[in-house]
Amino acid sequence: MAKFNFPDSPSTNDEYTANSVTWKWNGHAWKRTTGVGAPTGPQGAQGHQGVQGAQGHQGVQGAVGAQGAQGHQGVQGAVGAQGHQGRQGAQGVQGAVGAQGHQGVQGAQGHQGHQGVQGAGGSGGSTGAQGHQGHQGVQGAQGHQGRQGAQGYQGVQGATGGGGSTGAQGHQGVQGAQGATGNTGSTGSQGHQGRQGAQGVQGSVGDSGMDHSNKTGGYTLVAGDDQRLVTTNSAVTVPTGVFSAGDAISIYNNSGSNITINQGGTMYLAGTSTTGNRTLSQRGIATVVCVASNTFVISGAGLS
Questions:
Q1: I need a labelling partner for 124 at 20 to 30 A (CA). Which of 13, 117, 197, 198 fits?
Q2: Which domain holds residue 241?
Q3: Which residues face 261 on adjacent strands?
């Protein structure tokens, strides 16, 4: 947080610079001339020259009129708003995913081989001829039962036809090829840069001289006391939620005893990290400067 260590016992028009802010002592209070807030506005108008005193009997020159008070520094006009950012181009469309290849067809089951024919019974007791071996069936249905040979002398039982072999397993269908990935959409073009906002209007020249308010009892500062000299003989309170950075109030104790300046938020003694209420001695003068929200720095002569 910025702190200001104002010099004690300054002379009129002495300047003090700290934290890129310049202040000038006008004989009663430190007045900000540059820094916090905005650039310096134009010089206030020069006070009128006092009227020449009348010619005396002995030709004594009349006293020169007092110098007019220095006008307040004009407020800098606000900077124009920043142009809007151009819009982001739209995202290109995602290419479609290729279709899944079809599953290959299952090979058909082979038919069971036919049962071999039963051999015929031999005549006159001769052994019947051996039935022919059934042909190997092509993996198909169960072969038919061979017919019973005629009864003779006991013919030799024809051999049982061999079971047809199992048909070969059908080939696995070929996996469908992976569909090609769709092309990525192109990136939208960059939006145009917004135009620079126009320069703010130059602030008007500040009023000449510091406002003055006289109080005779306990008093709490208000927003209208900014850039004002408050003369009092009683306690003064610096409230919260009223002032913003750059506001400043001078307080003069015109009594013959000490008065208290009470902090509402955080009030630093200039040039230190000490906070809390301050005591202003008789005929002492102090300046309270708001440096951030509810944060103040106080300095002056006769301040403890």
A1: 117
A2: 211-304
A3: 236, 278
